[in-house]
Amino acid sequence: MPHVDGRGRGDLLVHLIVETPMGLDDVQEGLLRQLAAARGEDVAPHEPGLLSRIRSAFK
Predict the structure, then answer these.
(1) Beta-ladder partners of 2
(2) Which of 41, 36, 38 is nearest to 21 (CA)?
(3) At residue 54, what are phi and psi to the nearest 5 degrees?
(4) How far is CA 42 from the centre of its chain?
(5) CB–CB of 49/56 below 8 Å?
(6) How far apart are alpha carbons 54 and 12 in whole angstroms?
(7) Local confidence band at 44 (pLDDT 50, 70, 90 cut-offs)
(8) Burial environment of residue 11 by CB neighbours within 10 A (0 to 12, 13 to 18, 19 or more)
(9) Using an 8 Å Cβ cutoff, are 34 and 27 in contact?
(10) Which residues, in sequence order, are CB contacts of 1 under 8 Å at separation 6+?
(11) Cα–Cα distance between 47 and 54 in angstroms, integer?
(12) ∠58-55-31 over CA atoms, to 5°?
């Protein structure tokens, strides 16, 4: 990225904040799946994580 004053080049630093949707109801999840289908993306079904499987084993 060129410097503002025109001499040399500098680093381009980018700060991103990514929010992962969690706790979606069935309607919201369906809308996200429709969006993925419209974009031609393949969505894998949700699988419970390690802690969820351990908790369910002790119930």
Answers:
(1) 9
(2) 36
(3) -65, -45
(4) 14
(5) no
(6) 44
(7) confident
(8) exposed
(9) no
(10) 9, 10, 11, 12
(11) 13
(12) 140
d(CA 12, CA 2): 9
**pTM (whole model) above 0.70:** no
- In tens, the pLDDT along 8-38 reads 677 788 999 999 888 999 999 999 999 999 9
Cα(30)–Cα(5) distance, rounded to whole angstroms? 50
Question: In sequence order, what DSSP letters do the residues of 1-59 get, joined into one string?
Answer: -B-TTSSSB-------------S--HHHHHHHHHHHHHTT---PPP---HHHHHHHHT-
Q: How far apart are CA 26 and CA 9, in angstroms?
A: 49
Using CA atoms, how far apart are residues 15 and 34, in angstroms rounded to an integer?
Answer: 29
